[in-house]
Specification:
Length: 380
């Protein structure tokens, strides 16, 4: 039986609005693009309401390394904490919403965290902005504020994907009871991933249309578990090494300390990052040309090479990044493909536990710093 809501007009007349189905699934998808607030960010987190950035519609999801895409996700959003939010839209009249959609979404999520390079996600966002005649920087400012660090935000997207910190959302005009039970169960069991359903009922009457979103699946147990992570934190030397020691052990922690000592000896600025769960150690060489990045270390035990951010001379040239990569590939276990020279490839910190390997790594970084100085001198 269709429900009703009532509007109270200026002259105190009560106007009944009848619940009505959507004409098509496509219409519901298009409304979500125009009105992301239908994702009910205030209900997902009442203390810190979620705000949304649409990356793209029909986001391709590969099923294996190097494939073009086996599936197509309806919508990919990011919230202000850089949490990827995967949204599948169905009408309640679609029988797949009861069982098939669960397996479909889990397939998307399991493969997205493995096969979505953050560079591709960022490129999809920029392409979508161009298609919609929207400035990408303006959209980021709306989400994050005027003082936002865009590169740091995309780094957090990458970190969240690597950690499986994503949100899966089923959106429909009505959520059947069997889907609701499964969503509530998954949301209580999965951490750090979040699983919710959003019911967006439509009511029509006297030329007015009202949409009423309601979040389903956030039991109090799940809500407390998901909120326990807290807000973004400012990492420092002590917290970084405490986390790295706890997660990766003494040998890798000692490697990171030697890398920090190398950076300090060269008077590089250290930026520690502000991730909720993962800390970073990023040496930055500031000179007259700008900020120069070479590598970063992470509390989950990865060395990340900063090719994507090598925008100043001489590494703005691909040939110079290739020379740097060849030096790094002399380290046993390190392999860097040419297509990774516009990205931020990683390798395990454990590969530098061997003293000879660490010596090769730091020698390559010394070479990079010398090349930056040489280029700066020529420009001056």
């Amino acid at each position: 039986m269709a429900g009703k809501i009532y509007l109270l007009s200026g002259d105190s007349d009560l106007i009944a609005m009848e619940e009505a189905p959507y004409d098509s699934e496509k219409l519901l998808q298009e409304m979500l693009v125009k009105h992301p607030d239908l994702l009910a960010g205030d209900q997902i987190n009442s203390e810190d309401p979620r705000r949304w950035l649409l990356v793209t519609r029909e986001m391709s999801v590969p099923g294996e390394e190097g494939s073009n895409g086996r599936w197509s996700l309806d919508h990919l959003f990011l919230d202000q904490d850089a949490v990827p939010t995967l949204v599948e839209v169905k009408r309640s009249s679609d029988t797949r919403i009861r069982r098939e959609v669960i397996g479909q979404m889990l397939d998307y999520a399991a493969n997205a965290v493995v096969y979505w390079p953050v560079e591709e996600v960022r490129a999809k966002f920029q392409a979508r902005c161009e298609e919609d005649s929207q400035r990408a920087d303006a959209a980021m400012t709306t989400l994050l504020g005027a003082d936002c660090d865009v590169d740091e935000f995309w780094q957090r997207v990458k970190t969240n994907l690597q950690a499986g910190r994503i949100r899966m959302v089923f959106l429909a005009d009505a959520i059947p009871a069997e889907l609701r039970r499964v969503v509530e169960f998954l949301n209580e069991q999965m951490d750090p991933a979040e699983v919710i359903a959003i019911e967006v009922k439509q009511f029509i009457g006297t030329g007015v249309k009202t949409l009423v979103p309601r979040v389903i699946g956030q039991s109090e147990t799940a809500r407390q578990k998901k909120s326990s992570g807290g807000a973004a934190r400012q990492w420092d030397e002590a917290s970084f090494f405490e986390a790295l020691q706890s997660r990766r052990g003494t040998p890798e922690c000692e490697v990171a300390r030697k890398c920090l000592a190398w950076a300090n000896a060269r008077k590089l600025r250290i930026w520690w990052g502000q991730g909720k769960h993962d800390g970073s150690l990023i040496p930055v060489y500031d000179n007259d040309v700008g900020k120069n990045f070479i590598f970063s270390l992470w509390t989950y035990g990865k060395v990340e090479l900063q090719f994507q951010y090598m925008r100043t001379p001489p590494f703005a040239e691909l040939a110079m990044r290739q020379k740097f990569a060849r030096r790094l590939c002399e380290i046993d276990g390190v392999a860097i493909a040419d297509e990774a020279l516009t990205r931020r490839p990683t390798f395990g910190l454990e590969l530098l536990v061997d003293p000879e390997s660490l010596t090769k790594f730091l020698a390559a970084c010394d070479w990079a710093l010398a090349e930056i100085d040489n280029a700066t001198t020529r420009l001056g």
